[in-house]
Amino acid sequence: MLTIKVPLRKAENLKNYLLDNCFFNKEYEISKDKNFIYFPINEKKNLKKKFPFIEFVSKELKGTHKLTIRDLLKDKLTKKELNLVPSAFDVIGGIIILEIKQGIVKKEKIIAEAFLKLNKNIKTVAKKEGIHKGVYRVQKLKILAGISKKETIYKENNVKIKLDVENVYFSPRLSSERKRIMTLVKPKESILVMFSGCGPYPLVLSKNTKAKEVYGVEINPIAHKYALENLKLNKLNNISFYCGDVKEILPKMGFDKFALKSRWDKKHLESKVKQNPFMIEFYTPKGDIESDKTVKKIDQSIKKLAKKQIKIMIHMPLAYKDEKDISLAQHPDRISNTVECMKK
């Protein structure tokens, strides 16, 4: 690459001249060493006459254009296939988890290798092999590229979370939700987290608040094992983790008030209401909140529960619309009572 070598103390005026007169080659980055700076240029024309102290040298420079996944795949996939390559994906520690559409399954390893090359901090690329299912809500994964491992350490909100991404339910997309919840915790409060998994909520709340104590209950023994490891990893001492069914463990813990998780429809709510909780957390998976019609039905459920003095928390409101996260909790005007119950 053709460059101009110039002493550092004289660089600023020369740079302005190169930019103003279209000599500067913006496709490459500037380089410098201890005494000199190197500007990429398009041509030499009359520059030596105007700036006799400069020197023309050939030097290898980094390009300013950042590679995209499309750049890496454009010669390996058809245009139709390129349009199917995922632009949204989960990154958990050193693992990328992709959702591969049917039209590009035959090219999945090529695509995975491209993601691996593009993301230097990633060691493993996997794909979803189905939905979250079963009592533990785990999801089968297939390794496509990189190191064959499913255990990693994920960092968020000042904590480290170790987990097996296939055998533990975990969503990095709830990081901002966990941060929001921690701002609601008051000093010396005792907090119970049901379905606590590998411990993300208890860890974040313990690390970033002045809560007196935090309890976590999880039925998945593998997730519970990681929760105990994460307790040591983060050197926290006010968390107690319990492994088992919430229905069996909760009565033994002596809590006067407790919250339950449920879908918002009548069929799922009836059994929850009979247990007389002070709060019900609505779980709204993909497909529930994209339409205003469904949101109105959720609103009606909230109003009926409010009459029974049951508060509502929209805790898992993620869905996808035009490849963007949308959340009822971030739009309290769409759901009645949300703001009030978040404050209390």
Explained architecture:
The protein is α/β, with parallel strands linked by helices and 344 residues long. The protein is built from twelve helices and 18 strands. It has helices at 11-20, 47-50, 69-73, 79-82, 108-118, 175-182, 200-208, 221-233, 246-253, 266-273, 292-307, 338-343, and strands at residues 2-7, 31-32, 36-40, 55-58, 90-92, 95-98, 124-128, 141-146, 151-156, 159-164, 190-194, 213-218, 239-243, 259-262, 279-283, 311-316, 319-321, 324-326. It has a four-stranded antiparallel beta sheet with strand order 2-3-1-4, covered by helices on one side. A four-stranded mixed beta sheet has the order 5-6-7-8.
Cα shape: elongated
Mean pLDDT: 82
Q: Secondary-structure element order, as H and E?
A: EHEEHEHHEEHEEEEHEHEHEHEHEHEEEH
Major sheet attributes: 4 strands, antiparallel
CATH second-level architecture of the largest domain: 3-Layer(aba) Sandwich
| Helicity range | 25-40%
> Which value, in Å, is the CA radius of gyration?
27 Å
Number of helices: 12
